[in-house]
Design goal:
single chain, 10-stranded parallel sheet, 4 helices, 6-stranded parallel sheet
């Protein structure tokens, strides 16, 4: 028996990665991560222009230009060079570039210091960083039913504005003069 013999050496030493004598199980590719672990991204790169509706269930990274509606069941990220002209409806919207259209998010909207947003925002959580440009309205809605079912907590707040509206609707001859006259007159007389 020789110490350099291939037969003796193959059985006594571990197989290398490129060895044809490697066991079949070791040749199998490493198991791929589950779908929840994979990060799928649709990337619209700089210099690319898209006109029309963009929809899907994967994360969207816009560094080019999109003209049209975006409806994605995942995060939408507008890079520093990205421009979107149209409404966005997504789970999360992060704006580092420019967006001209209304933005609606199921979770949150974030406008970075380099971001520009001209449109209305509807989301439960909103962050507009210092230095960002925003022109539009903000409406924060929560999916929690507790807040919408608690009219008692809003009753005192709603009473004061209603009184102001009633005062504004009163004729100028009555209103405040009548109440001040009553306060100065004799008790019991109107």
């Amino acid at each position: 028996m020789s110490i350099f013999g291939r037969r003796d050496n193959a059985s006594s030493t571990p197989a290398s990665a490129g060895d044809p004598g490697r066991p079949q199980e070791a040749n199998l590719p490493a198991p791929s991560p589950s779908r929840s672990q994979q990060r799928r991204i649709t990337h619209i790169s700089p210099g690319t222009r898209i006109k029309g509706e963009v929809s899907g269930s994967t994360e969207l990274l816009v560094e080019g230009e999109v003209e049209g509606e975006i409806r994605v069941d995942a995060p939408v990220i507008v890079g520093a060079e990205g421009v979107i002209q149209g409404p966005i409806n997504a789970q999360v919207v992060r704006i580092g570039g420019r967006v001209f259209g209304n933005v609606q998010a199921a979770d949150r909207v974030e406008v970075a210091p380099s971001g520009t947003l001209e449109g209305d925002i509807l989301a439960p959580r909103i962050t507009i960083a210092e230095g960002a440009f925003f022109k539009g309205r903000v409406e924060m809605k929560s999916d929690k039913p507790e807040r919408s079912q608690r009219p008692d907590s809003k009753a005192p707040d709603n009473k004061a504005p209603d009184d102001k509206v009633d005062d504004a609707r009163r004729p100028k001859g009555g209103g405040d003069q009548g109440s001040s006259t009553r306060a100065q007159g004799e008790p019991g007389k109107p």
